[in-house]
Request: fold
Amino acid sequence: MKRRFTSQIFGGLILIGIGAMFLLRQLGYTDFSLGYLISNYWPVILILMGMKRLLGTGDEHQKGGSSPIGGFFFLAIGVFFLGRNLDWFDISAGDFFKMFIPIMLIGGGLYVIFKPRGSVPPVPPSPPSPPDYFPPGKSSLDVEPPKPLDSTLDEQFEQKFGKPSGGQDWNINLQKDEEEDEDGTGAFKSTAESRWQEKQERHERRRQERHERHARRHGEWHEEFHETESNNKESTNRSAFIGDVHMGREHFQLKNTNVSQFIGDTVLDLTNAQIAYGETKINISAFIGDIKVYIPNDMDLGISVNSSSFIGDMEVLDQSRSGFMSSVQCKTPYYKEAGKKVRINVSAFIGDIKVKTVG
Reply:
């Protein structure tokens, strides 16, 4: 009942507030932009959701419902994004969640220790026992089973009408028919198998001929391709669960690189890297943390970046994004004509992404 009353209050207040704003705008007392309100005050929805869950937890505890941790989560997220939109404070999403997640874990542990115990449901009554007294009489168990028949239906038919004339043994004819069917099926199977084998052989010969013609025409290209492929097989793999990853403090040879991070910042400095000709791929992924990639300003270097983030800000070359579920795809001019190419794929669940040129 309390939860329903709380939902009614919040729903009514939201409708009253929206109606009052539009009424004041129509009367000329205020002038606001709907796009500005939505883009800056959308975190108020998260704050209201958190307050609703916090105020409705009392009745839920009595019924064994959810904990107030969800309410604190929505309330904190809403206050954080509202403060950033209104310039109350300047904290990156990565720094905020680095502090917020441990606090939530501590709060969850305290709640598990001190949470109120729910009432034990009453035990349902046991079903009544069957009566010990049965009325006199013959029960269904005392009934005699039916007697078997004296003869089968075939015997009764022969006794009444006599045996059929002709004396043909139908079993012998049935066996002959089965043998003929088996011989015909076997012959059919052998013919089908031989045709299928011939088709397979023709197909294999044609495939070999096409492969030989292709090899004669593109023999040199295949050799170069296999050489470059064998050279590019080497890659650098880095992974960390908790902690920062910093690559590029000293001079190094850049290879195909894969970096995965759970909680922590990732920094990749390519200004000290020796980049080989051709295309080099770099994959960086993080769950919580900021990702920074520094690229040298080289005319012969082409950069292609594909970045995505669920919550956080992004600054990729000359483009920037912020908010929820943002993504950026860009590349430097004349990327295809560049001798050295670096393709960077960056993804983060919660955190900021920066990819910029230096020098």
